[in-house]
Amino acid sequence: MERYDAVVIGAGNGGLTAAATLAKKGVNVLLLERHNIPGGCATSFCRGRFEFEVALHQLSGLGTPEKPGLLRMELDKLGVMENLEFVELSDLYHVATPKGFRITLKTDRSENIAMLQEKFPHEKDAIDRYFDLMASYANDMIGAFIFRDPEPSREKYPYLYKYALRNSKEILDEYFSDPLLKAILSVYWGYLGVPPTRLAFAYLAMIFFQYMEFKPYHIKGGSQALSNAILNKFISDGGTARFSCGAKKIVVKNGRVKSVVTDNNDEIITEYVVSNASQVTTYTQLIDPEYVPESVSVEIKGRNLSTSAFTMFIGFDCEPEELGITESTNFLMDSTDISDAILDRMQNLNIQDELMVLSCYDIADADFSPPGTCQANVVTLKYGEPWLRIPPRQYHDVKFRCAESMLKRVEQIYPDAKKHIEEIEVGTPLTHMRYLGHPFGAIYGYEMLTKDSLFFQPGPYSPIQGLFLAGGWAGDNGFEPTLRSGISAAKSIIRRLGVK
Amino acid sequence: MRKGIWQEFDGYQDIVEEIKVSRKLGGTIAPAMINAEEYIRQLHPDRLELCVNGIIEETPSTKTLRFVSKDNYLPPFLAGQYIALYLEVGGIRTSRPYSISSPPNQTGYYDITVKRVEQGLVSNYLLDHVNRGDDLVSSGPQGNFYFNPIIHKSTKICIAGGSGITPFMSMIREIVDCGLDRTVHLFYGNKTDEDVIFHEELTNIAKRFDNITYLPVIEDPTDDYSGACGFVTSNLIRELLGDIEDKSFFICGPQGLYEFCLPELEEMGIARRKVRQEMYGAPLNIWEYPGWPEAVNKDDIFSVKLRDGRQLEARAAEPLMVTLEKNNVVVPSLCRSGECSMCRVKILSGKVFQPAAVPVRKSDKQFGYVHSCVSYPIEDLEILI
Question: Is B146 in contact with B80 (CB distance < 8 Å)?
Answer without folding.
Answer: yes
